Amino acid sequence: MVLLWEGDADFGARVKGMGAAFVGLPPNDYESLRTVGVMHASSIMPVSDDDRLNLQTALKARDLNPKIRVVVRQFNRTLGRKIEQNLPDCSAVSSSAHAAATYAGAAVDPGCFFALQFPDFDGPLLGFSERRASDFSVSGCTVAEAEKRLSSRVISVASKTDFEGHARLEGEDKLVVFGPLTNLRDSWPRAAQDSSKNVRRTSLTRGWRDFARGLKRVEPILLKIFLGGAALYVIATFYFAWALKLDPISAAYFVMTTMTTTGYGDISAVTNKGPWHSYIGSMVIMVGGLIISGVFIASVTSALNRAQITALQGLRRIRARDHVVVCGAGQVGTRVIDYLLRMDQRVVVIEMNPDSLLIERARDRSIDLLTGDATNDVTLGFCDLDNAKSLVANTDSDTLNLEVALGARSRNPNLNVVLRVQEPAFAHSIGRQFQLTTSFSTTELTAPAIAGLSRFPGTRGRISFDGEDYNVGERLQGAVPAPPPAKFCIPLYVWREGNLVALHDFAEMKPYDRLLFIVPLSQFRSNARQPKSEESITERRFVAT
User: Fold this and answer.
1) How far apart, in whole angstroms, are the C-alpha atoms of residue 105 and residue 107?
2) Single residue among 46, 76, 93 that ends a domain in this structure
3) Backbone angles phi, psi at 114, to 5 degrees
4) Using the 8-state DSSP alphabet, how is residue 447 labeled?
5) 460 within 8 A of 119, measured Cβ to Cβ
6) Could you give the count of Cα atoms lying within 13 Å of 370 in the half-sphere of its Cβ?
7) Residue 77 needs a FRET pair 20 to 30 A away by CA distance; which of 102, 224, 289, 352 works?
8) Are 506 and 477 in contact (CB under 8 A)?
9) Residue 273 domain-assigned?
10) What pLDDT is attached to residue 213?
11) Residue 401 to residues 416, 527, 540: CA-CA distances in angstroms?
12) In angstroms, how far is the first alpha carbon of the chain from the final one?
């Protein structure tokens, strides 16, 4: 393993401490690639944050070694797919799309620890979920009955993958289940909802608070004009009741028709033969009515425009139930929103600087968009966290995500919070210290897939359960179906003629099925410990940027 990157001596020492060689040269240079022996390498993995640099490095490596396997990181998922289709023996990985699947899966199922789209781009979102049998509501069922009830594959029972299919499941048995996340989401036991009376009382209280807060935001000059208009109306009603000898209702009616310039003519200073000063009074309330009407129309127009903008992206109270709040709509956040919408999940998005696509989705009512700071408790208070299913803290800053998560937990201690953290060690520390067990590192989710693809084309990721690491693999079967060449593989699903079909035995495969399976990695690690000759090591050298 050789790391090719422009770094200082300290960086190089860290790399060497991990057991890899380090060459401090620019990666997208022919001489640099020759220096690290790319002509004899089996694979190269350009995984920098620069898509253009990654592609340059990959193509130059192919110039020097047409047989080298390429695993290239591309944020643009569509471009990555086109590169795969046109560059032989190449895999393109979008970190945002790869990690977002797990964030979306954990948002709808708190037991989900890894998720992926199968088939990629077109298929449903599938996830691995680890819970007790009672949490799956399958206590007392056999494995076959549990799979039928969950419409998913049970792959581990009580830390065993070679379980008996007819055994009854105990409530405390730990299960690892894999299947469509819409099915796993619906199997999660729902918390008892508040009574309708309590919900109605809470909504009424919030409504009064919103009304009071709205009054405080009214412009003082508008408030003075409308109060002055109301005072003029009351005084004029009493005056014309006396001057024109009208009853109170008739006087109020006359003042209203005069101030609004409706002027039916059935009551007036002329027809009722009022005194001369009633003529002057009529003219005064006509002018006053014109001024107030103009201000009223302008205010209503402005309020409607403001309400339209607020309804699309402004801060306002969201009243919902079982919704997911996504804080941050960058590369990963956008993918999370896509996956959630695919599962028909109501989504509330908090984003400080929404792009045009996000605003268009809000306009189409696909999402509820709040333009604001998710770390602000007032902003979180608008999202109805008491009735939310979960919150995904998904900004580009680890500390901001932690602040959002803690703020949400203070409002609803039972809320499922999914936390995005870049540094794996920091993610584990947060999980231990703050009991935020659903905190994931984007790097930790993506790096194993990239490493696996360098050796095993079709790798979709890496998972761990029951003390074993598994590689998640995908294979397209030919005219004669064959199981994967590795040992102890566990079949999961096949994609067959546009349908997702659960698979329990490789013998059930049919021609041209797209197979999804897992394989334990311990067998490869034991082989890797065997000594190799220097020549074989040179032939199997991996080069990464």
Assistant:
1) 5
2) 93
3) -165, 140
4) H
5) no
6) 25
7) 352
8) no
9) yes
10) 53
11) 14, 41, 41
12) 11
Residues 446, 450, 452, 457, CA torsion sign: positive
**Listed residue (142, 38, 48, 162) closest to 95, CA to CA:** 48
- Rg (C-alpha) for the chain, rounded Å, is 33
Residue 342 lies in a domain: no
What lies within 8 Å, CB to CB, of 196 at 6+ separation is none
Residue with tokens 């999202």: 383
Exposed, middle or buried, 342 (CB in 10 Å: 0-12/13-18/19+)? middle
Q: Where are the alpha helices (DSSP H) in 18-94?
A: 30-35, 51-64, 77-86
Q: Judge contact between 156 and 136, C-beta under 8 A.
A: no
Domain end: 93, 110, 138, which one?
A: 93
The two structure tokens encoding residue 483: 């199981």
Q: Are 105 and 114 within 8 A, CB to CB? A: yes
Q: Could you tell me the CA-to-CA distances from 524 to 452, 461, 470, 520 in Å, in that order?
A: 12, 16, 11, 8
Is there a domain that residue 457 lies in?
A: no
- How large is the average pLDDT for residues 127-141? 93
Q: Between β-strands 468-476 and 459-465, what pairing exists: parallel, antiparallel or unpaired?
A: antiparallel
119 preceded by a cis bond (ω within 30 of 0): yes
pLDDT of residue 464 exceeding 60: yes
Please tell me the total number of residues recorded for the chain in this structure. 545
* Segments forming the whole domain that contains residue 270: 218-313
**Residue located via tokens 């067998």:** 523
d(CA 502, CA 495): 9
pLDDT greater than 90 at residue 267 = no
Please indicate whether residue 206 or residue 396 has the higher confidence score (pLDDT).
396
Report how many helices (DSSP H) and strands (DSSP E) the chain contains, helices first: 19, 21
- How many domains does the chain divide into? 2
For 457, counting Cβ atoms within 10 Å of its Cβ (0-12 exposed, 13-18 middle, 19+ buried), the class is middle
Closest CA to 459 of 467, 468, 470: 470
Q: Looking at residues 218-238, what average pLDDT do you find?
A: 81
| Residue 220 DSSP class | H
- Rounded average pLDDT over 18-46: 93
**Percent of the chain having pLDDT more than 70?**
88
CA 501 to chain centre: 27
DSSP 8-state code for residue 531 = -
CB 110 within 8 A of CB 416: yes
The distance from CA 401 to its chain's CA centroid, rounded to whole angstroms, is: 13
Look over the chain and give the mean of its residue pLDDT values, rounded to a whole number: 85
Q: What is the CATH number of the domain that holds 11?
A: 3.40.50.720
Can you read off the two tokens belonging to residue 151? 């419409």
- Distance CA(68)–CA(137), nearest Å, equals 49
CATH at residue 256: 1.10.287.70
In a domain, 451, yes or no: no
196 has pLDDT over 50: no
Question: Strand 542-544 and strand 43-45: pairing?
Answer: parallel
Closest alpha carbon to 322 in 432, 204, 185, 520: 185
User: Which residues, other chains included, contact 37 with Cβ-Cβ below 8 Å and sequence gap of 6+?
Assistant: 2, 538, 541, 543
Cβ-Cβ contacts under 8 Å for 170 (sequence gap 6 or more): 133, 139
* Residue 72, phi-psi category: left (phi > 0), alpha (psi -120 to 50), beta (remainder): beta
